[in-house]
Task: structure prediction
Amino acid sequence: MGRKVAIIGAKMTKFGNLIDKTLMDLLVEPSESLIEEFKVERSSITSVYVSNLLGEISSRQTAVATALADYIGLKNVVAERIENGPASGASAIRYAFMEISSGNSNMVLVAGAEKMRTAPTDVVTDLVSMMSHPEVEYPSGATMPSLGALFARLYMQKYDVKPEHLAMVAVKNHSNAMKNPFAQFKKEVTLEQLIGPGSESFNPYVSEPLRLYDMSPITDGGAALLLADLDTALSYTKKPVILEGIGESTDALALQDRDDPTELKAVRLSAEKAYRMSGIKPEEINVAEVHDAFTVLEIAISEEIGFFKKGEGKLALQNGVTKINGEKPINTSGGLKARGHPLGATGLAQATEITWQLQGLADQRQVKDASIGFTVNMGGFGSNAVSIVYRRY
Amino acid sequence: MKGYVCNKCGKVYTYKRKVCINCGSTSFNETELGDEAKLITYTVLYVVPAGIERFPLVLGIVEFNNGAKMFGQIMTDKPQVGMKLKPQYGKLRVKDGKEINGYYFVPA
Result:
């Protein structure tokens, strides 16, 4: 094992429809905010990793990491863009982790951003679906929601999960987002509105059995983390958050090629690797952000990461275990569902929420005495996942 | 419809691959998948991507008699898990102004 790696601090922009902000604004703002708050000498940062998927299409821009280094006056640094589908953010953290752990750098800036709201919905839907299998999924019109829906029907059937369970995820995450000033949605929703009589107009089907409120939204946003070896981190903050373990795993790219399409094997294996590296067990985790791109995923992921037995995720949800004041709070930020899902920024927004929780900065959504956190960021529809275990110093 | 079976582990694919994702073997034999498949999951999609002309678009995963699974468009207004389908070849979508053809499924 190499050196201990810690997060000094985390920042994000408000998520939502940020029509006046450019991709560079969304990268520069949280990065500058970190440099200012922690009074970092720019020459101490020797690498910058940027997670972003759609820069060339959304903003006619590639090589965005080099652009960020230039904009914020980082001279002669390593600057690279990381693309791993919607798991790009967590992947970028992983690169920074390895670089610091191995002693190649002492301080690394990781930033992620996405501009998704400029193109029409059918065009964004097509762009996002480019991560599906190019021969057996994309040609037929696969979209991420459609793959999510095929999974949902099988998973719901196998574990007797009802539409009200999916709606409970949305109700909880919208309620959490009410307490998060950075979240896209500021709107409480009720089970009655989502699945009650006449709910079809408020909550129409997007991809049966999934409805509008089962989907994460289309979001603009950016987030950034400053990482360093633990000794360096301690010279900037008394409250560093240690990255105890990181694991990543792929699965078959196409849903049809997985032995059991109700399993999220990449999620499970990435979590197992992160637990093994950290020596921390799922029972010890106090707060988690998981990849609820679709409501059903929050339930299924909560089982794959070992929080609950297969088929019991819905019970934990139903019994309030995953609420902010429950035993196992999940998606205190509002999750992808209600905080928003700007692809390249999502993994960093998850890490930001956990950092704030472990630094005691989560205001109204603070989980009491949170000392160990967890995130899982999924790439593609279950074809890749990156899990991270965090511990308060 | 033609499929491909891995000579080492026996996994069946509905499309040609260079390497078996299950066992890493590079040796495959052509196999007949038959013309009968069963729908195992489906969705009716109301937000379709650019390049798709059908609305709403029914997508599903079917299973052939030998266990091979395949994702595709399902040409019916009343999809039902368990329904019998057969593959047909034709236009799927348009990409960069070009027609893309492939297999989709119709009720048997």
Chain A touches chain B through 36 residues (CB under 8 Å). Chain A is about 40% helix and 20% strand. The two ends of chain A are 18 Å apart (CA to CA). The first strand of chain A starts at residue 5 and ends at 12.
